[in-house]
């Protein structure tokens, strides 16, 4: 067995030696150094791998030929063998060329190449492995940079447009996976309660993304994590060891679907405590009301602090010592859950302009309306976060892929890449790429 295998793979090995010795001859006058050696080896390994890949296809799958006629899956009639057709694919080692049997049904006017199906190839001209690499990279980097990265790392040339097509197809797959999950979780209740309930933090925000028509649209972003996975990496600094990110360009009501399934995926069960942190924006509250109506609400402390600071500015002047002293005193009271005292201080300020009075009224209205979510001393004691830093981080992660460098999207492209980004950030690419599919029987 091993002998036979060795013999069949020998041409690949010979290719390796041939390319390497050519490099050796080329470089021997210029002098070898480690840089040249590694480059020469990469070239030889790639040439060997390209050859070996084709040999392995032949060895394991054949050419897809199974006699002069076979049954057409369309009309059940006979399909005729018409010869061999070439196919070229870009693999992570470079271009591979091979031939496979071609059958044709005159009734259906349909050609068929069984080997393509055996190899689980899509219509794209890249191998599943390269598709996965492109999908992963494009979840992090722009299409142009993905092409450059492949050139730099593997010395293979992939057109930016091919990168875009492959990445979007992967993103569409990710989105389809999300939708299947949503549909299945919609039917399901939460998992039954466990003995010791867990505490989950859910956060929500939005990220504006630019579109080709000049408009900006909001991509909703949510982060779900268990309180336990929030670790203090240095005093006052927290790090999430594990979290589920969810993002979608949609309305608040629609976002409840992906958010709910992400909560279930994260592991939220019946009877668990849920703490919902956000800045109080209407849309985010709407989402929380749908996915966790019973959740304890927390207003982002820093958002509240900004509002209080704005009052200090209109009274004492921005940047003044008095402004700073007054604001610091109010924020101290705020973190001690003495909101009544804060409200009183604000109400008693002597203001000289109508504009200042208006600012005060707005802030007082906000604080009064949201005071039920500002019991910061209690949150502190429970070890809950008082800010929505996790979802702000989530928004930055989404924005790092969708925004900047004047990037402008079409809607399907944006949706696909956001889904791909989420799949990569949640380390879920294994479930998606290569597309899981039932194994087909081997060729005889
Ligand atoms: Zn047919």
Structure, explained:
The protein has 444 residues and is α+β, with helices and mostly antiparallel strands. It has helices at 2-28, 34-61, 114-118, 128-140, 143-154, 160-187, 252-266, 282-291, 301-316, 321-335, 339-348, 354-370, 376-382, 389-402, 411-425, 429-432, and strands at residues 69-71, 78-91, 94-105, 110-112, 199-210, 216-226, 230-234, 237-240, 244-248, 273-278, 296-299. The protein folds into five domains: 1-60, no CATH class; 62-121; 131-184, no CATH class; 189-300 and 387-403, Nucleotidyltransferase, domain 5 (2-Layer Sandwich); 302-373. Helix content is 53%, strand content 18%. β1 and β2 form a beta hairpin. The radius of gyration is 30 Å and the shape is elongated. The model is unreliable at 438-444 (pLDDT under 50). The site of zinc ion (ZN) has 7 residues, from loops.
Provide a brief overview of the structure.
Helix content is 53%, strand content 18%. By secondary structure, it is of the alpha+beta class.
List how many beta strands DSSP finds: 11
Major sheet: arrangement of strands = 9-6-5-10-11
Q: Bin the helical content.
A: 40-55%
Tally of distinct domains? 5
Q: What shape does the CA trace take? A: elongated
| Distance N to C terminus | 17 Å
Secondary structure class reads alpha+beta
Following the backbone from N to C, one meets helices and strands in this order, namely HHEEEEHHHHEEEEEHEHEHHHHHHHH
Oligomeric grouping of the chains: single chain
Percentage of residues in DSSP E strands? 15-25%
Helix segment count?
16
Could you name the CATH class of the largest domain?
Answer: Alpha Beta
Q: Which ions, cofactors or small ligands are bound in this entry?
A: zinc ion
- Radius of gyration (CA) equals 30 Å
Look up the CATH topology of the largest domain. Answer: Nucleotidyltransferase, domain 5
Largest sheet: 5 strands, mixed
Please state the second-level CATH architecture of the largest domain.
2-Layer Sandwich
Q: List unreliable stretches of 5+ residues.
A: 438-444
- The overall pLDDT average reads 92
